[in-house]
Amino acid sequence: xxxxxxxxxxxxxxxxxxxxxxxxxxxxxxxxxxxxxxxxxxxxxxxxxxxxxxxxxxxxxxxxxxxxxxxxxxxxxxxxxxxxxxxxxxxxxxxxxxxxxxxxxxxxxxxxxxxxxxxxxxxxxxxxxxxxxxxxxxxxxxxxxxxxxxxxxxxxxxxxxxxxxxxxxxxxxxxxxxxxxxxxxxxxxx
Length: 190
Fold this sequence. Notes:
Layout: E1 2-10, E2 15-22, E3 33-34, E4 38-39, E5 47-48, E6 53-54, E7 58-61, H1 63-69, E8 77-82, H2 88-99, H3 103-110, E9 116-120, E10 126-130, H4 138-144, E11 146-150, E12 153-157, H5 160-170, H6 173-189
Parallel strand pairs: 8-10
Antiparallel strand pairs: 1-2, 1-9, 3-4, 5-6, 7-8, 9-10, 11-12
Helix pairs in contact: 2-3, 5-6
């Protein structure tokens, strides 16, 4: 058994954390993140895992999204912005079960609020699941996400304007460097 950390971090700074047993390989996977391998795929419609298929609304955000729009850079995690509309959290939880995520993480995701971040794994293959992000309307940003292709997989990636707004609002040194890079890319594409 592989042991990984899983936690939920609330907007008030409190967190619940624990060491969780995971089945090393992460379970059968068609699309998603393979522990130890980084990004295998992320699909907007559908986010499909084997052996079951569930459609989940979400978008890649953060370092992987910056890499898509500009050039790849080191990042400690894969950030996924997930919709809280309808039964999407339950569908995400079902996809995580099929992925082989720890039961504790699945339960956290089922109840995830807009001020919480659920995560599992350890850097550099940590996965963060968010329902909100600084500077953007999450639900609108998910709907505007661009579709990237990785082999035969389709990956939803935050649109460059939403990503710039998010990075500018986060206002950390790496985010501001990302903003400068993304703005130069956007200017060249116009």
